[in-house]
Automatic annotation (TrEMBL):
It is an enzyme of class 2 (transferase). The record marks Y4 as: Interaction with substrate rRNA. This is Ribosomal RNA large subunit methyltransferase J. Keywords: Methyltransferase, RNA-binding, rRNA processing, S-adenosyl-L-methionine, Transferase. It comes from the Bacteria. S-adenosyl-L-methionine binds at H19, H42, S104, E122, D146, G147, D167. Specifically methylates the adenine in position 2030 of 23S rRNA. Transmembrane segments: none annotated.
Amino acid sequence: MLSYQHAYHAGNFADVHKHLTLFAVIDHLLRKRSSVTYMDTHAGRGLYPLAAEETAKLQEYREGVARLWQARERLGDDLLLGDWLTALGRMQSRAGGLDHYPGSPWWLSQRLREQDRLMLFELHPGEHGHLAQQALPDNVQRIHGDGLQGLVKRLPVPSPRLCVLVDPSYERKEEYAEVAEAVCQAMRKARHAVVLVWYPLLPAGRHRELLEGLRDGGVRKIWRSELHLREPQQGERGMIGSGMLVINAPWGLDERLEAAVAKILPLLGETSRHRGDWWVGE
Ligand code: SAM
């Protein structure tokens, strides 16, 4: 049963980490003219008004995107953060305000060129219903179905390049292994694909199963970025950080992201730290 709704968490520090990484990857892909197929296996609703009942309930965005928004003039010195914040500003209903947070479908669809394609998979009927109502470009396809199965089934794609975002809610602990299995299958069908995988950092360290599954499936050349907010308190079970993997990361992506994340760390709290490395399967 699906109960997770991203609207409760929209714009939190993990969304910032995920979408900034995605934005940087798209930047690199746009340096060449050849077409790109993008797939977002777990799309969510696409756009989150911050005043919506669900988002206003927890207000997680206050400790995430709102902190960057308040510091946007200073952060604009960094080209990546400056461009990301400018793109975010374009989504707001009034200049200078922050009233919406865009989800991955928006971050992807806004930068589609005529020659590119985007497939958005969403399994939850209600979330898919929200997504279906949004005004997105014609080269965006919305698919009500399982994103991991859909990804593997639709490969290879006709375009020379492929970029995939895998962003599950990990409501079930089996999902870590399922994601690893689907990504390994996808990499066998499309070796050149740039694949981004998000995972939560939990005190239980469940994401290790994901990493081990990728290693055992022979996936190499992974850039790993982990944003740790704090050490877990005794008995704590919730999210203490956010992890991103980028398989076949474009050259130079690591340095750009390290520099940008270093600038936002002080905004996320005294105990926050970042680890970026090329994961080799330890
Ligand atoms: N990627 C979105 C973003 O960045 O804005 C957030 C996605 S949210 C973390 C995960 C979404 O995946 C939820 O909307 C959930 O309904 C959906 N979902 C769960 N299992 C799925 C599956 N097997 N295939 C497709 N979507 C799924």
